[in-house]
Amino acid sequence: MEKESEKKTVDIDDGVVAMAVRYQGFDPAAYLQYNYTPPRADFQRSDSIVPWKLSCLHKAFTEGDIDGDLLVDIGTGPTLYQVMSGCEVFRRVILTDFLEVNRKELKTWLGGGSGSLDWTPYLEYVCQLEGRSSSAASDKASRLRSAVTDVLPIDVHRQQPLASGALPPTGADCLVSCFCLESVSPDVASFNRALGNISTLLRLGGHLLLIGALGESFYLGGPGLQIPVVPLDEAQVCNSLKATGFALVQLSVYTLPPDMRVGVDDVSGVFFAKARKL
Question: Residue 146 in 3-state DSSP?
Fold first, then answer.
């Protein structure tokens, strides 16, 4: 029995190594173009996926049960939308990613550069959700830049995903993670293990806001670069959260309209989960 368990661990590790090799060709600019421009990021459409994600995050951060000092985004990639609401709630925000090219992309914008995508429409939309004029977008950009104190390397497949001392001993008050764990795990077992690993970064009673793909087996990480994804369904998301010590507070599901299926992946839907660490 013990040998069988050891074999499963080796198989997971081999799969994780293969995923890391595949990601060396990741192209942040191409990925942003594929997923964060219209039709998926059409702020004039109520059924566009990006406004849906921003609305879920805004609602979660303003319901009154999430607070504290430190917000950590797990597997930020080259994107910033996931902390645009949270930076108003938390004094400090830490961004993390496995790839240096993504960390470089984030640092370019945080340092005042333009980066590969104009985030202004995103900032304007979140300001409107907050009841402010879209003209407040420059103030929100300044707030976000001042709130982010670090952009750190992370490996969600390690028991200690961040370097020792990167977080306070009690952990973060809230974690956000969007489209990370299922797209860096070769199977459900490693997805669950990664979810358990990141839970160690969160204090007891803290919240996890998890956004991910449903029914997806691949996505393009750059021209011709097909990256495998663990296909999840709603039941699996709920089971994984429960198995790793989280109580599900809310689960919402978005189904992609036909014209949002633009050939850069085979995703059928997106889930938003709000959970609390027990």
Answer: helix
